[in-house]
Amino acid sequence: MSYNRDNFVRIKNEYLDRNRRAREEAEARASEINNLFPEIREINNEIAGYGLRCLEAAQKFSGEKLESELFRLKKRTEELTAKKARLLAEKGYPSDYDFVKYKCAKCSDTGFCGINMCDCMKQELIKAGIDSSGISALFEKMNFDTFSPNYYDSDNLQKEQIESVFSYCKNYADSFNCNSENLLFVGGTGVGKTHLSVAIAKEVTEKGYDVVFKSAQDLISDFEFERFHKSYSDVSPAKTDKYYECDLLIIDDLGSEMTNQFTVSCVLSLMNSRINSGKPTIISTNMTPDKFKTYDERIASRLNDFTPFLLHGKDIRSLRRDKWRK
Ligand SMILES: [Zn+2]
Protein backbone atom coordinates (compact mmCIF):
# COMPACT_ATOMS: atom_id res chain seq x y z
CA MET A 1 0.00 0.00 0.00
CA SER A 2 1.33 3.41 -0.82
CA TYR A 3 -0.34 6.58 0.31
CA ASN A 4 -0.52 9.43 -2.14
CA ARG A 5 2.97 10.97 -2.17
CA ASP A 6 1.89 14.63 -2.04
CA ASN A 7 -0.59 13.92 0.76
CA PHE A 8 2.11 12.08 2.73
CA VAL A 9 4.62 14.95 2.49
CA ARG A 10 1.97 17.54 3.37
CA ILE A 11 0.57 15.59 6.33
CA LYS A 12 4.05 14.69 7.67
CA ASN A 13 4.86 18.43 7.71
CA GLU A 14 1.53 19.20 9.40
CA TYR A 15 2.48 16.73 12.14
CA LEU A 16 5.89 18.35 12.64
CA ASP A 17 4.11 21.70 12.98
CA ARG A 18 1.44 20.33 15.30
CA ASN A 19 4.05 18.75 17.60
CA ARG A 20 6.10 21.97 17.70
CA ARG A 21 3.02 24.12 18.36
CA ALA A 22 1.87 21.86 21.24
CA ARG A 23 5.28 22.20 22.91
CA GLU A 24 5.47 25.97 22.34
CA GLU A 25 1.97 26.51 23.72
CA ALA A 26 2.83 24.48 26.85
CA GLU A 27 6.00 26.55 27.30
CA ALA A 28 3.97 29.75 27.02
CA ARG A 29 1.50 28.52 29.66
CA ALA A 30 4.39 27.48 31.92
CA SER A 31 5.98 30.96 31.63
CA GLU A 32 2.63 32.56 32.37
CA ILE A 33 2.17 30.73 35.68
CA ASN A 34 5.87 31.00 36.58
CA ASN A 35 5.62 34.77 36.22
CA LEU A 36 2.36 35.03 38.11
CA PHE A 37 3.16 32.66 40.98
CA PRO A 38 6.76 32.55 42.32
CA GLU A 39 5.99 29.55 44.59
CA ILE A 40 4.98 27.52 41.52
CA ARG A 41 8.11 28.71 39.68
CA GLU A 42 10.26 27.34 42.53
CA ILE A 43 8.46 24.00 42.36
CA ASN A 44 8.88 23.88 38.57
CA ASN A 45 12.59 24.60 38.88
CA GLU A 46 13.01 21.83 41.40
CA ILE A 47 11.03 19.36 39.29
CA ALA A 48 13.11 20.34 36.23
CA GLY A 49 16.29 19.42 38.14
CA TYR A 50 15.08 15.88 38.92
CA GLY A 51 16.93 14.18 36.05
CA LEU A 52 20.17 15.94 36.90
CA ARG A 53 19.93 15.00 40.58
CA CYS A 54 19.36 11.34 39.62
CA LEU A 55 22.58 11.48 37.57
CA GLU A 56 24.50 13.06 40.43
CA ALA A 57 23.20 10.36 42.78
CA ALA A 58 24.34 7.65 40.34
CA GLN A 59 27.85 9.15 40.35
CA LYS A 60 27.98 9.49 44.12
CA PHE A 61 26.29 6.29 45.34
CA SER A 62 25.85 2.67 44.40
CA GLY A 63 23.87 -0.38 45.47
CA GLU A 64 21.26 0.05 48.17
CA LYS A 65 22.32 3.61 48.97
CA LEU A 66 21.72 4.61 45.35
CA GLU A 67 18.37 2.88 45.28
CA SER A 68 17.16 4.62 48.41
CA GLU A 69 18.40 8.01 47.13
CA LEU A 70 16.57 7.50 43.80
CA PHE A 71 13.43 6.49 45.70
CA ARG A 72 13.71 9.62 47.86
CA LEU A 73 14.09 11.87 44.79
CA LYS A 74 11.14 10.23 43.07
CA LYS A 75 8.97 10.63 46.13
CA ARG A 76 10.00 14.27 46.48
CA THR A 77 9.11 14.97 42.85
CA GLU A 78 5.70 13.32 43.29
CA GLU A 79 5.04 15.46 46.35
CA LEU A 80 6.07 18.60 44.48
CA THR A 81 3.84 17.68 41.53
CA ALA A 82 0.87 17.14 43.84
CA LYS A 83 1.61 20.42 45.65
CA LYS A 84 1.78 22.29 42.37
CA ALA A 85 -1.55 20.79 41.26
CA ARG A 86 -3.09 21.93 44.54
CA LEU A 87 -1.72 25.44 44.19
CA LEU A 88 -2.93 25.68 40.60
CA ALA A 89 -6.42 24.53 41.63
CA GLU A 90 -6.50 27.11 44.43
CA LYS A 91 -5.67 29.80 41.89
CA GLY A 92 -8.40 28.58 39.54
CA TYR A 93 -6.21 26.78 36.97
CA PRO A 94 -6.51 23.17 35.80
CA SER A 95 -3.84 20.94 37.38
CA ASP A 96 -2.38 20.08 33.96
CA TYR A 97 -2.40 23.71 32.80
CA ASP A 98 1.26 23.77 31.68
CA PHE A 99 1.43 20.19 30.41
CA VAL A 100 2.08 19.62 26.70
CA LYS A 101 -1.31 18.76 25.23
CA TYR A 102 -0.97 16.64 22.12
CA LYS A 103 -3.95 15.92 19.91
CA CYS A 104 -2.82 12.29 19.91
CA ALA A 105 -1.28 11.11 23.17
CA LYS A 106 -0.19 7.86 21.52
CA CYS A 107 2.29 9.42 19.09
CA SER A 108 2.71 12.88 20.68
CA ASP A 109 1.64 14.34 17.33
CA THR A 110 4.65 12.92 15.52
CA GLY A 111 2.53 10.56 13.41
CA PHE A 112 4.73 7.62 14.41
CA CYS A 113 4.97 5.23 17.34
CA GLY A 114 8.55 4.06 16.99
CA ILE A 115 8.95 3.01 13.37
CA ASN A 116 5.24 2.32 12.90
CA MET A 117 2.82 4.90 11.58
CA CYS A 118 0.26 5.89 14.21
CA ASP A 119 -3.40 5.11 13.51
CA CYS A 120 -4.22 8.83 13.69
CA MET A 121 -1.87 9.59 10.77
CA LYS A 122 -3.20 6.62 8.79
CA GLN A 123 -6.71 8.04 9.22
CA GLU A 124 -5.60 11.49 8.07
CA LEU A 125 -3.92 9.99 5.01
CA ILE A 126 -7.07 8.03 4.19
CA LYS A 127 -9.18 11.18 4.53
CA ALA A 128 -6.77 13.08 2.30
CA GLY A 129 -6.81 10.15 -0.13
CA ILE A 130 -10.60 10.38 -0.35
CA ASP A 131 -10.30 14.08 -1.18
CA SER A 132 -7.60 13.55 -3.78
CA SER A 133 -9.39 10.62 -5.42
CA GLY A 134 -11.35 13.26 -7.34
CA ILE A 135 -14.78 11.86 -6.46
CA SER A 136 -15.22 12.21 -2.70
CA ALA A 137 -18.58 13.90 -3.30
CA LEU A 138 -19.84 10.79 -5.11
CA PHE A 139 -18.89 8.35 -2.35
CA GLU A 140 -22.07 8.95 -0.39
CA LYS A 141 -24.36 8.41 -3.36
CA MET A 142 -22.49 5.65 -5.14
CA ASN A 143 -21.27 2.85 -2.93
CA PHE A 144 -21.95 -0.86 -2.55
CA ASP A 145 -24.77 -0.19 -0.06
CA THR A 146 -26.63 2.08 -2.45
CA PHE A 147 -26.27 -0.23 -5.46
CA SER A 148 -29.45 -2.19 -6.04
CA PRO A 149 -29.64 -5.08 -8.51
CA ASN A 150 -33.45 -4.61 -8.25
CA TYR A 151 -33.19 -1.87 -10.84
CA TYR A 152 -32.71 -4.72 -13.29
CA ASP A 153 -35.60 -6.91 -12.17
CA SER A 154 -37.60 -6.42 -15.35
CA ASP A 155 -35.33 -9.03 -16.82
CA ASN A 156 -34.20 -12.02 -14.73
CA LEU A 157 -31.15 -12.76 -16.82
CA GLN A 158 -30.00 -9.15 -16.52
CA LYS A 159 -30.64 -9.23 -12.79
CA GLU A 160 -28.62 -12.41 -12.35
CA GLN A 161 -25.84 -10.97 -14.43
CA ILE A 162 -25.66 -7.72 -12.47
CA GLU A 163 -25.75 -9.62 -9.17
CA SER A 164 -22.75 -11.67 -10.19
CA VAL A 165 -20.89 -8.53 -11.40
CA PHE A 166 -21.77 -6.83 -8.12
CA SER A 167 -20.38 -9.65 -5.97
CA TYR A 168 -17.26 -9.86 -8.16
CA CYS A 169 -16.68 -6.11 -7.66
CA LYS A 170 -17.32 -6.29 -3.94
CA ASN A 171 -14.86 -9.14 -3.63
CA TYR A 172 -12.37 -7.23 -5.80
CA ALA A 173 -12.56 -4.20 -3.48
CA ASP A 174 -12.37 -6.36 -0.33
CA SER A 175 -9.27 -8.21 -1.47
CA PHE A 176 -7.65 -5.34 -3.38
CA ASN A 177 -3.86 -5.17 -3.47
CA CYS A 178 -1.32 -3.32 -5.62
CA ASN A 179 -1.27 -6.22 -8.10
CA SER A 180 -5.01 -6.80 -8.41
CA GLU A 181 -6.33 -7.50 -11.90
CA ASN A 182 -7.58 -4.90 -14.38
CA LEU A 183 -11.33 -4.60 -14.90
CA LEU A 184 -13.30 -3.40 -17.90
CA PHE A 185 -16.94 -2.38 -17.58
CA VAL A 186 -18.78 -2.22 -20.88
CA GLY A 187 -22.33 -0.95 -21.26
CA GLY A 188 -24.53 1.96 -22.22
CA THR A 189 -25.39 4.95 -20.10
CA GLY A 190 -27.09 4.31 -16.75
CA VAL A 191 -26.31 0.61 -16.39
CA GLY A 192 -24.17 0.98 -13.27
CA LYS A 193 -20.62 1.18 -14.67
CA THR A 194 -19.78 4.42 -12.88
CA HIS A 195 -21.61 3.37 -9.73
CA LEU A 196 -19.58 0.16 -9.44
CA SER A 197 -16.32 1.99 -10.24
CA VAL A 198 -17.00 4.62 -7.57
CA ALA A 199 -18.01 1.92 -5.05
CA ILE A 200 -14.71 0.13 -5.64
CA ALA A 201 -12.82 3.45 -5.44
CA LYS A 202 -14.46 4.22 -2.10
CA GLU A 203 -13.60 0.90 -0.45
CA VAL A 204 -10.07 0.80 -1.82
CA THR A 205 -9.41 4.42 -0.80
CA GLU A 206 -10.71 3.72 2.70
CA LYS A 207 -8.14 0.95 3.01
CA GLY A 208 -5.45 3.58 2.49
CA TYR A 209 -4.60 2.94 -1.16
CA ASP A 210 -3.92 5.82 -3.52
CA VAL A 211 -6.86 5.80 -5.94
CA VAL A 212 -7.38 8.22 -8.81
CA PHE A 213 -10.72 8.37 -10.62
CA LYS A 214 -10.97 10.48 -13.78
CA SER A 215 -13.25 10.77 -16.74
CA ALA A 216 -11.34 10.00 -19.94
CA GLN A 217 -12.04 13.55 -21.05
CA ASP A 218 -10.47 15.15 -17.94
CA LEU A 219 -7.55 12.77 -18.08
CA ILE A 220 -6.83 13.73 -21.69
CA SER A 221 -7.17 17.44 -20.77
CA ASP A 222 -4.35 16.96 -18.24
CA PHE A 223 -2.15 15.32 -20.89
CA GLU A 224 -2.95 18.18 -23.30
CA PHE A 225 -2.07 20.74 -20.63
CA GLU A 226 1.31 19.09 -20.00
CA ARG A 227 2.06 18.76 -23.71
CA PHE A 228 0.74 22.00 -25.18
CA HIS A 229 0.10 24.59 -22.45
CA LYS A 230 2.62 24.15 -19.67
CA SER A 231 5.36 26.73 -19.71
CA TYR A 232 8.91 25.40 -20.16
CA SER A 233 10.00 27.25 -17.04
CA ASP A 234 7.33 25.50 -14.95
CA VAL A 235 9.19 22.73 -13.14
CA SER A 236 6.27 21.60 -10.98
CA PRO A 237 5.51 17.86 -11.14
CA ALA A 238 3.40 16.86 -14.14
CA LYS A 239 -0.37 16.72 -13.56
CA THR A 240 -0.30 13.34 -15.26
CA ASP A 241 2.27 11.71 -12.92
CA LYS A 242 -0.48 10.52 -10.61
CA TYR A 243 -2.08 8.50 -13.41
CA TYR A 244 1.10 6.44 -13.72
CA GLU A 245 1.90 6.25 -10.02
CA CYS A 246 -1.40 5.67 -8.17
CA ASP A 247 -2.27 2.22 -6.80
CA LEU A 248 -5.56 2.11 -8.69
CA LEU A 249 -6.48 4.23 -11.70
CA ILE A 250 -10.11 4.36 -12.79
CA ILE A 251 -10.81 5.82 -16.23
CA ASP A 252 -14.48 6.56 -16.59
CA ASP A 253 -16.20 6.60 -19.96
CA LEU A 254 -13.28 5.87 -22.26
CA GLY A 255 -14.26 6.71 -25.82
CA SER A 256 -16.33 9.75 -24.85
CA GLU A 257 -13.33 12.03 -25.36
CA MET A 258 -12.35 13.58 -28.68
CA THR A 259 -10.17 10.96 -30.30
CA ASN A 260 -7.06 11.81 -32.28
CA GLN A 261 -3.52 10.52 -32.61
CA PHE A 262 -2.40 12.42 -29.51
CA THR A 263 -5.21 11.20 -27.23
CA VAL A 264 -4.76 7.61 -28.35
CA SER A 265 -1.01 7.73 -27.78
CA CYS A 266 -1.56 9.10 -24.26
CA VAL A 267 -4.03 6.38 -23.33
CA LEU A 268 -1.82 3.71 -24.89
CA SER A 269 1.33 4.87 -23.10
CA LEU A 270 -0.54 5.01 -19.80
CA MET A 271 -2.03 1.54 -20.27
CA ASN A 272 1.32 0.07 -21.32
CA SER A 273 3.10 1.58 -18.36
CA ARG A 274 0.52 0.40 -15.82
CA ILE A 275 0.22 -3.08 -17.31
CA ASN A 276 4.00 -3.49 -17.47
CA SER A 277 4.42 -2.41 -13.85
CA GLY A 278 1.50 -4.60 -12.72
CA LYS A 279 -0.55 -1.66 -11.42
CA PRO A 280 -4.31 -2.22 -11.65
CA THR A 281 -6.59 -0.07 -13.81
CA ILE A 282 -10.36 -0.05 -14.19
CA ILE A 283 -11.86 1.25 -17.41
CA SER A 284 -15.51 1.85 -18.10
CA THR A 285 -16.77 2.44 -21.60
CA ASN A 286 -19.78 2.12 -23.82
CA MET A 287 -17.65 0.92 -26.73
CA THR A 288 -18.17 -2.67 -27.84
CA PRO A 289 -15.12 -4.75 -28.94
CA ASP A 290 -15.71 -3.84 -32.60
CA LYS A 291 -15.87 -0.14 -31.78
CA PHE A 292 -12.70 -0.47 -29.76
CA LYS A 293 -10.88 -1.76 -32.81
CA THR A 294 -11.90 1.37 -34.72
CA TYR A 295 -10.89 3.51 -31.72
CA ASP A 296 -7.44 1.94 -31.81
CA GLU A 297 -6.31 -1.62 -32.54
CA ARG A 298 -3.39 -1.43 -30.09
CA ILE A 299 -5.62 -0.28 -27.22
CA ALA A 300 -8.17 -2.97 -28.10
CA SER A 301 -5.38 -5.52 -27.90
CA ARG A 302 -4.16 -4.25 -24.50
CA LEU A 303 -7.68 -4.90 -23.21
CA ASN A 304 -6.81 -8.60 -23.32
CA ASP A 305 -5.17 -7.88 -19.97
CA PHE A 306 -8.53 -6.77 -18.52
CA THR A 307 -11.36 -8.86 -17.11
CA PRO A 308 -14.44 -7.61 -18.97
CA PHE A 309 -17.94 -7.21 -17.59
CA LEU A 310 -20.83 -6.53 -19.85
CA LEU A 311 -23.51 -4.52 -18.14
CA HIS A 312 -26.37 -4.21 -20.49
CA GLY A 313 -29.32 -5.67 -22.30
CA LYS A 314 -29.72 -7.56 -25.48
CA ASP A 315 -27.20 -6.05 -27.83
CA ILE A 316 -24.12 -6.89 -25.84
CA ARG A 317 -25.39 -9.60 -23.53
CA SER A 318 -24.26 -12.27 -25.96
CA LEU A 319 -20.68 -11.08 -25.82
CA ARG A 320 -18.40 -13.28 -23.81
CA ARG A 321 -14.93 -12.91 -22.45
CA ASP A 322 -13.36 -14.93 -25.27
CA LYS A 323 -14.59 -12.38 -27.77
CA TRP A 324 -11.96 -10.02 -26.36
CA ARG A 325 -9.19 -12.51 -26.99
CA LYS A 326 -7.35 -12.40 -30.25
ZN1 LIG B 1 -1.15 9.46 16.76
Question: What's this model, at a glance?
Answer:
The chain is α/β, with parallel strands linked by helices.
- Distance separating the two termini: 34 Å
Contiguous runs where pLDDT drops below 50 for at least 5 residues: 314-326
Q: What would CATH call the architecture of the largest domain?
A: 3-Layer(aba) Sandwich
Average pLDDT over all residues: 86
Bound molecules: zinc ion
Helix content: 55-70%
Descriptive tags:
326 residues; alpha/beta; Rossmann fold; five-stranded parallel sheet; 56% helix; binds zinc ion
List the helices and strands and how they pair.
Elements: H1 5-36, H2 38-48, H3 50-60, H4 63-90, E1 112-113, E2 116-117, H5 119-132, H6 156-174, E3 182-186, H7 193-206, E4 211-215, H8 216-229, H9 241-245, E5 248-254, H10 261-276, E6 281-285, H11 289-295, H12 297-302, E7 306-310, H13 314-317
Parallel strand pairs: 3-6, 3-7, 4-5, 5-6
Antiparallel strand pairs: 1-2
Helix pairs in contact: 1-2, 1-5, 2-4, 3-4, 6-7
Structure description:
There is one protein chain. This protein is an alpha/beta fold. The protein folds into two domains: 112 residues, no CATH class; 192 residues, Rossmann fold (3-Layer(aba) Sandwich). 56% of the residues lie in helices and 10% in strands. It has 13 helices and seven strands. It has a five-stranded parallel sheet, sandwiched between helices. A two-stranded antiparallel ribbon has the order 1-2. Strand 1 and strand 2 form a beta hairpin. Helix 1 crosses helix 2, helix 1 packs across helix 5 and helix 3 packs antiparallel against helix 4. The structure holds zinc ion.
